[in-house]
Design goal:
Layout lengths: L3 E5 L4 H14 L2 E8 L11 H11 L3 E6 L1 H14 L11 H19 L4 E3 L8 H12 L4 E3 L1 H4 L4 H10 L13 E5 L2 E5 L26 E8 L2 E5 L2 E2 L2 H13 L5 E7 L5 E7 L1 H17 L2 H19 L6 H13 L5 E8 L3 E8 L7 H4 L9 H11 L1 H10 L8
Parallel strand pairs: 1-2, 1-4, 2-3, 4-5
Antiparallel strand pairs: 6-7, 7-12, 8-9, 8-13, 9-10, 11-12, 13-14
Helix pairs in contact: 1-7, 4-5, 8-9, 10-11
Bound molecules: arginine.
Arginine binds next to α4, β6 and β7.
Length: about 400
């Protein structure tokens, strides 16, 4: 019996050609797995029936569509939000979050269909191959991995020709301008005109963040233990909440990023992102932490957040350090409860204009400059004297200006 391979299938040209290429060149049977992680939001979502039909037309013995939107929101976006995760201080890990979701389902389908290998359509230059393969190794070290696009040496034109020859129903209308990857957390745009880091990104790259509204709007985001649970007082599950906030923010033109980033494989690349929901939610969540986290916990968490983002970016979602950091972050979120008022003003700004919490550590009676405050002013004198005692001793022994002598 032929070996079975479970392929991460997007429905696009490359993975459609990959189905048939694996059959012809590796002599395997292909099970295509398409995972819905909330992509193509601007088009109202993908046509999953058409994608399934295309996989079968390409020669797959089975084509499975998995709706992983809730899982994407609750098990991946929410933890990333709690970690305020932004790779290199900017990018909220859009693609890096969806790959482990897809890997989970690839492995599950491999088991269900008795497959001995998984496959993906990534090339050798990107991060996504790393995430697919390292994730698969973590969950199922026994599975073999095929990466046809890394070995086949086909140009885009070759793929179009092969698709025609193999009668795979692909609609290739015009030259694809950009390489796009998107999900509930946002959208990544690469290639084409944006490969020149000096050139401004052409306006047509943006689809989720166009300021179609002209008036500013305020939205109150409610959190319970670090989980976003409500918009303007209306309870929502994470998935619809993220999608709704993304539309509100995006329609005010908020959520664009234009940056040069370090890929895991050693390449610097110019990337454009649209992440209206991710960036506004992280802004709100981080602000609520300012109000509710004790100082040492807050500072330590801030030191660990970049490491968490880096691990996830580097394909180590399933790894021991990531799990240990998850435990720390989960513990830190117990009292991150309250509301944050966000103001979106077209074209493209988002500002926190208010925050409140039943467990706020902000104490008005302590903070106020009113004479009626509850702060014990007399305690300050002794505290500050001891705080500066070491410095005073140093200065007295070694003389003022000692810091300038080498
Ligand atoms: N540079 C981003 C990342 O590594 C986006 C990758 C987008 N992937 C794609 N196949 N276009 O996470």
């Amino acid at each position: 019996m032929a070996e079975r391979v479970v392929l991460a299938y997007s429905g696009g040209l490359d993975t459609s050609v990959a189905v048939r290429w694996l059959i012809e060149n590796e002599g395997v049977e292909v099970v295509a797995v398409a995972v819905n992680v909330g992509q193509s939001a601007e088009r109202g979502g993908e046509d999953w029936d058409a994608i399934r039909t295309r996989a079968l037309a390409a020669g797959a013995v089975e084509a499975v569509v998995v709706d992983a939107r809730t899982e994407m929101a609750e098990d991946f976006c929410v933890p990333a939000l709690q970690a305020n995760a932004r790779y290199e201080g900017k990018y909220p890990l859009v693609s890096a979050l969806s790959r482990p979701v897809i890997v989970r389902h690839l492995v599950a389908e491999a088991r269900r269909h008795g497959a001995s290998a998984v496959a993906h359509g990534c090339t050798g230059k990107g991060n996504d191959q790393v995430r697919f393969e390292v994730g698969t190794r973590a969950l199922a070290p026994d599975l073999k991995i095929y990466a046809p696009a890394r070995v086949w040496g086909l140009s885009r034109e070759d793929c179009v020709e092969l698709a025609a020859k193999w009668e795979i129903p692909i609609t290739v209308t015009k030259d694809k301008l950009y390489s796009i990857d998107d999900n509930l957390w946002g959208k990544a745009i690469e290639c084409g005109a944006i490969e020149d880091p000096w050139a401004p990104a052409p306006d047509d790259v943006y689809t989720l963040t166009r300021a179609t509204e002209t008036e500013p709007v305020e939205v109150i985001v409610g959190f319970e233990s670090g989980v976003p649970v409500a918009l303007d007082g209306q309870s929502l599950d994470p998935e619809p909440l993220i999608a709704t906030l993304g539309r509100i923010a995006g329609s005010r033109g908020f959520g664009r990023l234009d940056m040069v980033e370090n890929r895991r494989v050693g390449i610097k690349s110019r990337e454009v992102y649209e992440c209206p929901a991710a960036l506004s939610l992280i802004m709100a969540h981080a602000d609520l932490e300012d109000l509710t986290l004790e100082r040492d916990l807050h500072h330590e968490k801030a030191r660990l957040e970049p490491r968490w983002a880096e691990l996830v970016y580097d394909g180590l979602w399933f790894s021991p350090l990531k799990s240990a950091l998850d435990a720390f972050i989960a513990q830190s979120q117990r009292h991150v409860t309250g509301e944050v008022r966000l103001r979106f003003a077209p074209p493209g700004t988002c500002t926190v204009v208010g925050r409140r919490s039943p467990v706020a550590l902000y104490d008005h009676d302590l903070a106020t400059y009113d004479a009626s405050d509850s702060f014990r002013h007399a305690d300050a004198e002794g505290f500050v004297r001891l705080w500066g005692l070491g410095v005073a001793t140093w200065s007295a022994r070694q003389g003022p200006g000692a810091e300038n002598r080498s």
